[in-house]
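User: Structure please.
Assistant: Input sequence and predicted structure:
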Amino acid sequence: MLCAVSVAAGVSVASVGTSIADTGSSGSSGSVEIYLPVPSPAGMQALTAAMTQVGRPYKWGGTGPWAWDCSGLVQWAFSTAGIRLPRTSQQQARVGHAIPLSALAPGDIIIFYRDASHVGIYAGFGQVFNAYGPNGVPIGFTPLNHWSHIKTIRRFG
């Protein structure tokens, strides 16, 4: 279940997780999705799988199982949850649901830098689980504030 609430213009939110139809005569025909900071089951499963790889070395182009690059790790972790992601961080930046920073939840992927050259899985408490180099550096947790630019946040499931 994607944690979003669809709210029609002129209608208040009655409960989380429901889609509220505009039955009034406000004249509005649009609605907006509001994402909540609630983890998706697929994202949590992917995060759990990724964390089993803690300490394995970073390797540019690595797709496991003994070494990983950032997007290879994310792709593999989400495959354990039944989510097929493209191979590169640039491609991963264009799939799933875009999530605002205010709704960031564990299991969401974060694409970093303007060129979308790095990706990690948000683990909560200001930490990102990721693989980054140079080659040989053990993969693990990095503070979210380590990166200067978030390109996009994506949620799956």
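Residues 1-27 have pLDDT under 50 and may be disordered.
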